[in-house]
């Protein structure tokens, strides 16, 4: 049975009233420990610090489930300005984004136009764009838009979640596309997703093997040291070049392990979220592991 705290935090992550209120609160409940500020300038400064430690990054302007065209346009402009800030500052960073923040739930063509302009601008500056995967209703629309963009651009990829039954077939069909592989962070039905950690972990490793064996670039996004060790064994056994894969972790989590992996000569990319729309992201991080709730309780006493 799913733990009560997990269901609670996932429920709160989708609460529109709380998300709206959080934009006015500023970073609270310890969120500043895992969200790199509310502005592009704050985020770029954090990326500079991480680069200096031998870590590369991907910047994520937070925001999702947008329901008004002007808000989608505002998020689009933030992505464009983030690309320009990366280029002007010279930091080593990609861009990550969510399609719902660009208006996917409002107007597909509006979202597509936003995404194409972002990818085109990023290409001009030599920057890779990662389209984050969201909950299951948005999975197929995300993959459809990705395929349309990949006909013209090679600097765009997406994310596949190991807890979905469909993911192995998706990975096979996305041969040659740079993928970030994750376990998954949304609440999904037992009809479409594995519910047990052991099942998810097994499928996760199978997805990693499948994508790597096809010669495709693979980003392994996990804080699980057992998965990391298994990947190291896999690439050694099959002589997979380090240029074909990278490890990824979230900003603020397991920082010593991040440094250790980078110190071993592997590419270690840090997912650096920022922005005023931080509440949904923060709640999902609390849902993933009970230890993360310590951030919230400490944050209750922060002014």
From TrEMBL:
<dbReference type="InterPro" id="IPR008219">
    <property type="entry name" value="PRODH_bac_arc"/>
</dbReference>
<comment type="pathway">
    <text>Amino-acid degradation; L-proline degradation into L-glutamate; L-glutamate from L-proline: step 1/2.</text>
</comment>
<keyword id="KW-0642">Proline metabolism</keyword>
<keyword id="KW-0560">Oxidoreductase</keyword>
<protein>
    <recommendedName>
        <fullName>proline dehydrogenase</fullName>
        <ecNumber>1.5.5.2</ecNumber>
    </recommendedName>
</protein>
<keyword id="KW-0274">FAD</keyword>
<keyword id="KW-0547">Nucleotide-binding</keyword>
<keyword id="KW-0285">Flavoprotein</keyword>
<feature type="domain" description="Proline dehydrogenase">
    <location>
        <begin position="44"/>
        <end position="295"/>
    </location>
</feature>
<dbReference type="InterPro" id="IPR029041">
    <property type="entry name" value="FAD-linked_oxidoreductase-like"/>
</dbReference>
<dbReference type="InterPro" id="IPR015659">
    <property type="entry name" value="Proline_oxidase"/>
</dbReference>
<dbReference type="InterPro" id="IPR002872">
    <property type="entry name" value="Proline_DH_dom"/>
</dbReference>
<dbReference type="Pfam" id="PF01619">
    <property type="entry name" value="Pro_dh"/>
</dbReference>
């Amino acid at each position: 049975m799913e733990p009560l705290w997990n269901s609670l935090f996932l429920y709160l992550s989708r609460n529109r009233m709380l998300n709206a209120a959080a934009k006015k609160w500023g970073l609270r409940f310890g969120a500043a420990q895992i969200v790199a500020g509310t502005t592009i300038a704050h985020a770029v400064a954090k990326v500079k610090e991480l680069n200096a430690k031998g870590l590369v990054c991907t910047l994520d302007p937070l925001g999702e489930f947008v329901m008004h065209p002007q808000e989608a346009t505002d998020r689009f402009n933030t992505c464009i300005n983030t690309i320009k800030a990366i280029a002007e500052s010279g930091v080593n960073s990609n861009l990550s984004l969510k399609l719902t923040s660009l208006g996917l739930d409002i107007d597909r063509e509006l979202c597509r136009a936003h995404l194409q302009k972002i990818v085109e601008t990023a290409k001009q500056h030599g920057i890779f764009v990662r389209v984050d995967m969201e909950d299951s209703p948005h999975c197929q629309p995300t993959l459809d838009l990705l395929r349309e963009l990949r006909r013209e651009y090679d600097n765009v990829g997406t994310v596949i979640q190991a807890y979905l039954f469909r993911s192995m077939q998706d990975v096979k069909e996305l041969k040659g596309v740079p993928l970030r592989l994750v376990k998954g962070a949304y609440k999904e039905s037992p009809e479409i997703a594995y519910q047990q950690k052991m099942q998810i972990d097994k499928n996760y490793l199978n997805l990693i093997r499948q994508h790597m064996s096809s010669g495709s670039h693979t980003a392994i996004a996990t804080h699980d040291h057992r998965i990391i060790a298994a990947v190291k064994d896999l690439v050694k056994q099959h002589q997979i070049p380090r240029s074909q894969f990278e490890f990824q972790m979230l900003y603020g989590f397991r920082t010593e392990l991040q440094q250790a992996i980078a110190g071993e000569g592997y590419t270690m990319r840090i997912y650096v979220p920022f922005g005023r729309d931080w509440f949904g992201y923060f709640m999902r991080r609390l849902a993933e592991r009970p230890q993360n709730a310590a951030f919230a309780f400490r944050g209750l006493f922060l002014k």
